[in-house]
């Protein structure tokens, strides 16, 4: 099991031992699995977390005694299966949870683990909060999505699930694979984030949005996951998971040391990569290549690198993003000391109940300073043959990709206008019902769709080749895909735009725009400036 690094709270203690009774032969309330072996008698000594007092004291625990017994029995079943098959076996144990705030929970515990994720979906209102890693799913290069899909399929094939699952709390079911994929395969020595970073969290919490007007905690599902090899000790794994649950759910940080806030008047410097005039020259080269017949469209990006006098406050940035960008999906991925976060209006693909949804979001104009100006920009979106053609290319690609596995693929007509804080887009929803004999799942569609013409260009290969040769920018996960997949092929992936990579006091902000034959360099540069504003506001560096 990949054990998350912890800085344990001082206030938690743990019982000396836990005994699983002989009668506990099946911990799995989830009827989807019938354990192959009975849970043996076991004694689980639970030592206090690091730094906790050793003397007996009253305490609260995230799991009560019976829940700890059930967790141990689930892990023992998985351990027996791993020894029988000689392969890693995923154990996933669940219980209902009362969740006050997904963001607050993530903010408290992200400081205590080396890897975490926050996901708040614009489409179903659901949240995923996850800490630590039970197992990493590796993928590199052009085949990174396929490699992750193969690893995930293998891992969940013989999974052992226990506890009390609550499928009504959120879409999807069971343990999740979470994380994302870079825009393009890159030299791993030159990027802070890998080509693919998908993992099974050691602790995950899933919940739906609270009902409108409702106060107080919401229903959620807590799930503890571990990937056990034939050599792993289930009792030690249970101790680690119980301590992780205590740490993530019960710890209260100190007021100053643990949750720093950004000082007022923080100084910063900003550098455009490439410089503005050099980027505009790239636009001219791209449009020249389009007119010469190289491709129809290419999406050219640029980076704004900001260095501040003090580290950025990541939770504050997330809260500002949520407040200023309603209707977007907010995400934050902590990995190896850096955070990739954003508030995106665009999803790549989502699959639920064998229905596949994709979104064509292409064609952009700014918001107007007055209602009259705003309406004029909206008319430009709707009436411009250039913008309509750019949008149609994206929608047709989505229809083709879904058509390989789906029956009755439909697209909204006409496109609707989506108004955000600084820009407005043409948007078309595309959906289809998986054919009865289709085994396709969410990761199959991620592989087919990423990157769409809205993020790379059209035709795809020609546009991407030109970008690799000319853009001169490591996009990292900008314009990549971030989201989750479950064991049944359901899941959600967003297009990682309106995003930034934060590393202490340094932030790399990204924006891009689609170019066609008659694109104007000045107008395209202005469009990227508008797209950078949400993240500039979130980081309080406007």
Instruction: Work out the strand percent.
Output: 25-35%
DSSP, total strands: 25
Could you tell me how far the N terminus lies from the C terminus, measured between alpha carbons in angstroms?
A: 44 Å
Low-confidence stretches: 1-58, 255-260
Assembly form of the protein: single chain
Q: Based on helices, strands and strand pairing, what is the structural class?
A: alpha+beta
Into which percent range does the helicity of residues fall?
Answer: 25-40%
Measured on Cα atoms, how large is the radius of gyration?
24 Å
Biggest sheet record: 13 strands, mixed
> How would you sum up the global shape?
globular
- The mean pLDDT is 84
Q: Give me the number of helical elements.
A: 11
